[in-house]
Design a protein that fits this description.
The structure holds two protein chains of two kinds. By secondary structure, chain A is mainly α. Chain A has 15 helices and no strands. Helices cover 73% and strands 0% of the residues of chain A. Chain B is globular. Classes of the chains: A mainly alpha, B mainly alpha.
Chain lengths: 336, 320
C-alpha cells in the first residue's frame, strides 16, 4: 500500500511526456502564448467572447468525433449532418410565429437521434467499416439537406439568436443582455456538451464505450451488447452536432446544405491531436476540446502573423502530423 | 462440375454480384431513359470510371497491405502533380518526359512520407494521409494564390487521356494494360504473395522473415507514384489544371474498392473487382443524373444505394 502510494506520487517527467495528452496541452499553451502576443487586446472580454464563438462549432464536433472514435468507429458524416440540422431548423421555423422555434427544436432533435441511429446501425449492427458507411450516410444527409434547402437560406425565429448573442434580441430584459455579453451562449452549449458527457461517463454506458472501443470481441464475449453501445456513441455524437447546429442557426439565421463539409475532417483531426487514439478505447473527450483549440489557434496565428491564408491548410496539416508524431518519435528516441 | 462452380462462386461472388448490378443499372437506364443504353454512353461511363479505378488501385494496394491502411491523399497528390506539371509541359511534347519525371519524384516523395509516418512511426494511416492531404492542398493553394494556373498538357498526353480511336477511349487501353500488369504482379509473382501475406497476418509474415514495415511503406510509395501519374492523365483529359480537380475522387476510390469486394481489413485484392466497383459508382451517378432527379435526389439515392449495398456485402457479421 505504502509502496503503491510512493510510486504514484513520484514525479517523473517522462511519465507525462509519453502521454499524448500532455504534448497536446503543451502545444496549446505555446499556441496560446503566441496568439496573445500577436493579437492586441487578446485578453479583453470582447475578444474572448469572439474567440469562443469562432471556435465553438469545431469544439462541439470534435467532442462528438472523440466519442465515436473512442467507441471504435469514425464519423465522416458529421459535417453533412450539421448542415442537415441547420436545414431542418430553418425549414420548420417561420419568422412570424415564435412558437415554431420550439417545434423546430423538437423536430431537429428527433432528426438528430435518427441520424445517430442510422449511423449506429451501419457501424454497430451491420458491422460495415465505419469509414465507408458514414461516407454513404453523408450523401444521404446531403441529399435530404438539398431537398429542404436547394440554396442557402431559410428563415428563423427572432429568439433563436439566444443561441448566439441574446443582446441582439429586441425587447429582452437588460440583465439578460448583460449576462449574454459576459457569458456567450456558445460557451454554455459547450458546457452542456461537457455535462452530457460527464453524466454519461459516470454510467455503465460510458465505461462500455471505452470497453467496446478497446476490444470489440472481448467486450462482446463479456456480455456487452457492442452494437447497442456503438449506436449510443453515434447518438451522443449526433446530439453534440445538434448543439453546434443551434449555434449556427442562431448566428446566421439561415440553413445551408453544404456549410458543414469542411468541419468533418477538422473535427476528427482535432480529436486525434487531443490524444484520442484512432484505434479506439483510448483518450479523453475533454481533450478533444484541447485539440480543437489547437487547430483553431493555428488559423488565428496565421491570420494575425500576416501570413497569406493560402497557407492555412498547409500549416494545420503539418501541426496534425507534428502533434501525433512528436510523442511517438520522443518515445523511440529515448528508447535508444 | 458442381464443385467447380461453387468454388468459383465462393471466390468471385462479390465480383459477379457487382457485374450483375452494373448490367441491371444499364438495363434499367435503357428502359427508363431514352438514349441511355448506347455504345457511346457505355464507353463514356467506362472512360469516366477509369480515373476512379486508377485512384482505387492506389487505395487497394494500401488497403491490401493491412494495418488499417487507407490513402486519403491520392486525389491531392494528383492535383499537385497536375498543377505543377501544367506549366512545365506548356503544351509541348518535348517536355512530357520532364513532366513524367516530376510526377515520379513527387509521387514517391509523398508516398515515402506517408509510408514512413504510417508504418515506421506506427501512426494511424487515416490521420497521416488526411494531414498529408491538407499539406498538399495547402501547397496547391499557396502555389496558385494570386496567379492563374497556366500551361496545357502535351498533345501526346491529351491523345492518350482524352481522345478515342474508333470510338474507343484510349484511356481504356491504358487501364487494360495496367490491369494485366497488376493481375500478373499480384497473382503470379512473390510480390503479391508478400503484400497479401502482410495484410492478412502480420505476425506470420514477420515470422517468415518479411519486413512488414518496409512492405507497408512500399505500398504507400507505389500508391503515391500511381496517384501522381493519374494526375498527369487527368490534366491530359481535362486540358487544364485547377485547384480541386482531383479531390473529389478520394472517397469514391475507397467506395469502389469496397464495392469491388475487397476487404477493408487487408490481405486480399482483385483489381478487376475494383474496376467493376468504379464502373458501378459511375453508372449509378450517370443514371441518377439521367433520371433528372436534381442534386438532392441524386445524392440521397446514391447514399441509400451505397448503404444498402454495403449492408449486404461489406458487413462483417461473422459468427462469433
Amino acid at each position: 500500500m505504502m509502496n503503491k502510494n510512493n510510486n504514484s506520487s513520484k514525479f517523473s517527467l517522462s511519465n507525462y511526456v509519453f502521454n499524448p495528452e500532455f504534448s497536446s496541452l503543451l502545444i496549446l499553451i505555446v499556441m496560446f502564448i503566441i496568439t496573445a502576443i500577436l493579437q492586441e487586446k487578446f485578453f479583453t472580454l470582447k475578444s474572448i467572447v469572439r474567440n469562443i464563438n469562432a471556435f465553438a462549432p469545431l469544439i462541439l464536433l470534435s467532442m462528438g468525433a472523440a466519442v465515436v472514435i473512442i467507441s471504435g468507429g469514425i464519423d465522416l458524416s458529421a459535417g453533412a449532418a450539421l448542415s442537415l440540422f441547420t436545414c431542418v431548423l430553418t425549414t420548420v421555423m417561420k419568422k412570424s410565429d415564435p412558437i415554431t422555434g420550439v417545434y423546430a427544436l423538437l423536430v431537429t432533435f428527433a432528426v438528430a437521434i435518427l441520424v445517430g441511429i442510422v449511423n449506429g446501425i451501419g457501424i454497430g449492427y451491420l458491422r460495415i467499416p465505419p469509414v465507408i458507411v458514414t461516407f454513404a450516410t453523408s450523401y444521404m444527409w446531403l441529399g435530404i439537406g438539398l431537398f429542404l434547402r436547394p440554396t442557402p437560406g431559410g428563415e428563423s425565429v427572432e429568439w433563436f439568436r439566444i443561441f448566439y448573442n441574446p443582446g441582439m434580441i429586441e425587447g429582452i430584459s437588460p440583465s439578460i443582455k448583460q449576462f449574454g455579453s459576459m457569458i456567450p451562449p456558445a460557451l454554455i452549449l459547450i458546457l452542456i456538451a461537457c455535462f452530457i458527457w460527464w453524466v454519461i461517463s459516470k454510467t455503465k454506458t460510458g465505461r462500455y464505450i471505452y470497453a467496446v472501443g478497446s476490444n470489440n470481441d472481448s467486450a462482446y464475449a463479456s456480455g456487452i451488447n457492442t452494437a447497442k453501445v456503438q449506436m449510443q456513441a453515434c447518438i451522443i455524437n449526433s446530439i453534440f452536432i445538434f448543439l453546434a447546429a443551434l449555434f449556427f442557426v442562431g448566428q446566421n439565421q439561415s440553413g445551408d446544405a453544404r456549410m458543414g463539409d469542411p468541419l468533418t475532417l477538422r473535427a476528427i483531426a482535432s480529436a486525434i491531436v487531443g490524444g484520442v487514439a484512432l484505434s479506439g478505447g483510448k483518450g479523453s473527450v475533454y481533450f478533444a476540446l484541447v485539440g480543437a483549440l489547437i487547430l483553431s489557434f493555428v488559423n488565428k496565428i496565421i491570420f494575425f502573423a500576416n501570413i497569406s491564408t493560402a497557407y492555412q491548410t498547409l500549416v494545420s496539416g503539418l501541426i496534425v502530423i507534428i502533434a501525433i508524431a512528436a510523442p511517438v518519435a520522443y518515445t523511440l528516441y529515448s528508447k535508444e | 462440375m458442381n464443385l467447380g462452380i461453387s468454388i468459383i462462386w465462393g471466390r468471385y461472388k462479390k465480383i459477379i454480384v457487382a457485374f450483375i448490378l452494373i448490367v441491371l443499372l444499364f438495363a434499367l437506364g435503357g428502359i427508363v431513359v431514352p438514349n441511355f443504353l448506347t455504345v457511346e454512353q457505355v464507353l463514356f461511363t467506362l472512360k469516366l470510371a477509369s480515373f476512379t479505378a486508377l485512384f482505387a488501385l492506389c487505395q487497394m494496394l494500401v488497403i491490401a497491405a493491412g494495418g488499417g491502411g487507407l490513402d486519403l491523399s491520392v486525389g491531392y497528390a494528383a492535383t499537385l502533380t497536375a498543377v505543377l506539371t501544367a506549366s512545365v509541359m506548356d503544351g509541348q511534347n518535348a517536355n512530357l518526359m520532364a513532366a513524367i519525371l516530376i510526377a515520379l519524384v513527387l509521387g514517391s516523395a509523398i508516398g515515402l512520407a506517408n509510408g514512413a509516418l504510417a508504418s515506421f512511426l506506427n501512426l494511424p494511416p487515416l490521420v497521416v494521409t488526411m494531414a498529408m492531404a491538407n499539406i498538399l492542398q495547402g501547397i496547391v493553394n499557396a502555389y496558385t494564390a494570386g496567379r492563374n494556373i497556366t500551361g496545357r498538357p502535351s498533345p501526346i498526353l491529351a491523345i492518350v487521356a482524352a481522345k478515342s480511336t474508333g470510338g474507343f477511349p484510349n484511356i481504356l487501353f491504358i487501364l487494360l494494360a495496367i490491369t494485366i500488369l497488376v493481375m500478373v504482379v499480384l497473382n503470379k509473382t512473390k510480390w503479391g504473395t508478400i503484400l497479401f501475406g502482410v495484410g492478412s497476418n502480420e505476425t506470420t509474415a514477420y515470422l517468415s522473415g518479411i519486413n512488414v514495415k518496409v512492405v507497408r511503406c512500399f505500398a504507400f510509395v507505389v500508391s503515391g507514384i500511381l496517384a501522381s501519374l493519374t494526375g498527369l492523365l487527368l490534366i491530359g483529359n481535362m486540358g487544364i489544371a485547377f485547384k480541386d480537380m482531383a479531390s473529389n475522387y478520394v472517397m469514391p476510390s475507397i467506395a469502389a474498392v469496397v464495392v469491388g469486394g475487397v476487404s477493408m481489413s487487408g490481405g486480399d485484392g482483385n483489381f478487376v473487382g475494383v474496376i467493376l466497383g468504379a464502373v458501378f459508382l459511375q453508372a449509378l451517378t450517370n443514371l441518377l443524373i439521367a433520371f433528372g432527379l436534381g442534386d438532392a435526389g441524386k445524392w440521397l439515392v446514391f447514399g441509400i444505394v451505397l448503404y444498402v449495398l454495403l449492408s449486404f456485402y461489406a458487413s462483417n457479421r461473422r459468427s462469433r
